[in-house]
Specification:
seven-stranded mixed sheet
Length: 119
């Protein structure tokens, strides 16, 4: 049984920094892509950043230059470092992984972690 468990998040003032991490566990053969999405109240879930197995990254325009995604391949972990946070970054942040396991190839999501940017 594959699980994605997120950590980090919380409350931060505008202009501050925060990090979130996500670790995939279970009988995993290979992780193709890991990434972060977010969903603000009343809005659809949107891509924040993704990183491939080869290390290629992609970011939403709204976070380019402020957020950095990274992976620890040995630990099946993806992290998102967020800088210069804005109130509009407030959302539930979800980890996503596209991977191969004993169950085959599939997409998995974490439970979400709240990030609130407010003074």
């Amino acid at each position: 049984q594959v699980q994605l468990v997120e950590s980090g998040g919380g409350l931060v003032q505008p202009g501050g920094s925060l990090g979130v991490s996500c670790t995939a566990s279970g009988t995993i053969f290979r992780i193709y892509v890991m990434g972060w999405y977010r969903q603000a109240p009343g809005k659809q879930r949107e891509l924040v950043a993704v990183i491939s197995s080869g290390g290629s990254t992609d970011y939403a325009d709204s976070v380019k230059g402020r957020f950095t995604i990274s992976r620890d391949y040995a630990k099946n972990t993806v992290s998102l470092q967020m800088f210069s946070l804005k109130p509009e970054d407030t959302a539930v942040y979800y980890c996503k992984a596209v991977l191969s396991s004993v169950a085959g190839n599939d997409v998995y999501w974490g439970q979400g972690t709240q990030v609130t940017v407010s003074s």
